[in-house]
């Protein structure tokens, strides 16, 4: 369903008032399913449907367990999160305007069930970017992402800067709070490196976030890993798109 919208404030790294939209696009469904991360562990993928055929997907690996705990506890943990998201969190978001990222992120934080927050927050942003027919990094970065610089994929031992802030994304992160922290660090003149807490999935979101926020480094553990390949492929795609 589409309805009239009020002027919305862009919530990214460089806040700005965007043009008044003629239409707002309602979120009509939110659905979580189980996938596997690159370590073979259960992870969550969230799909947000908005308007007619707009889809935003996002995935993030879940909590890491010791080898003794892995199989049974991980499976129970992921099933509980999926049930929680589909039965309790999704109904609170369905019907919201997909462009109201800050409001949706506030709902996620106030819900008290933060273990699925990031995947939902990111899926909403992807749906909004799809609605505007722009890449995720452009939607997140606004005018600052028109001619962005590309980040490096770097291991911890290769970091040459003495004082650097690691911006680590975990399950409880929401995009508005993430970008508020990034903006604070930038205003203080701090160099940053972006990372995530758990094993990667097929989702290359770290690249788009780094480009949007003008963060020049992404932390990787191993250049031989499948997740490194996912991130590097996304970097190559963006380099080709931006240079072309």
What characterizes the major β-sheet?
Answer: 3 strands, antiparallel
Residue ranges: pLDDT <50 for 5 or more in a row? Answer: 1-22
Strand content: 15-25%
The CATH homologous superfamily of the largest domain is named: Enolase-like, N-terminal domain
Give the CATH class of the largest domain.
Alpha Beta
Total individual domains: 2
- 3D shape: globular
- CATH 2nd-level architecture of the largest domain: 2-Layer Sandwich
- Count of alpha/pi helices: 7
The helix/strand order is EEEEEEEHHHHEEHEHEH
What gap, in angstroms, lies between the N and C termini? 36 Å
CATH topology of the largest domain: Enolase-like, domain 1
* Gyration radius over CA: 18 Å
Q: Order of strands in the sheet with the most strands?
A: 5-6-7
Structural class: alpha/beta
DSSP E strands, number: 11
Helix content: 25-40%
User: Mean pLDDT, nearest integer?
Assistant: 83
Protein name: Enolase N-terminal domain-containing protein
Domain Enolase N-terminal: 27-140
GO molecular function: magnesium ion binding; phosphopyruvate hydratase activity
GO cellular component, one term: phosphopyruvate hydratase complex
Which key features would you list for this structure?
single chain, Enolase-like, domain 1, three-stranded antiparallel sheet, magnesium, Enolase N-terminal domain-containing protein, Enolase, 244 residues, 7 helices, two-stranded antiparallel ribbon, alpha/beta
């Amino acid at each position: 369903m589409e309805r009239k919208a009020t002027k919305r404030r862009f919530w990214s790294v460089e806040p700005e008032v965007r043009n008044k939209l003629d239409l707002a696009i309602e979120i009509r469904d939110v659905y979580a399913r189980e996938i596997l991360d690159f370590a073979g562990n259960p992870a969550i993928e969230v799909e947000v449907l908005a308007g007619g055929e707009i889809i935003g997907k996002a995935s993030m690996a879940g909590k890491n367990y010791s080898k003794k705990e892995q199989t049974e506890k991980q499976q129970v943990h992921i099933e509980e999160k999926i049930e929680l998201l589909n039965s309790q969190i999704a109904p609170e978001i369905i019907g919201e305007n997909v462009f109201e990222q800050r409001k949706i992120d506030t709902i996620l934080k106030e819900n008290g069930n933060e273990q699925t927050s990031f995947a939902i927050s990111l899926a909403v942003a992807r749906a909004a970017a799809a609605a505007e027919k722009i890449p995720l990094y452009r939607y997140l970065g606004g005018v600052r992402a028109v001619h962005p610089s590309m980040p490096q994929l770097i291991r911890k031992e290769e970091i040459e800067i003495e004082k650097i802030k690691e911006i680590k994304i975990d399950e409880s992160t929401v995009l508005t709070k993430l970008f508020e922290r990034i903006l604070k660090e930038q205003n203080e003149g701090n160099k940053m490196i972006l990372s995530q807490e758990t094993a990667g999935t097929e989702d290359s979101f770290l690249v788009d976030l780094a480009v949007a926020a003008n963060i020049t480094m992404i932390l990787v553990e191993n250049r031989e890993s499948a997740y490194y390949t996912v991130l590097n492929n996304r970097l190559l795609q963006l380099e080709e798109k931006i240079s072309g």
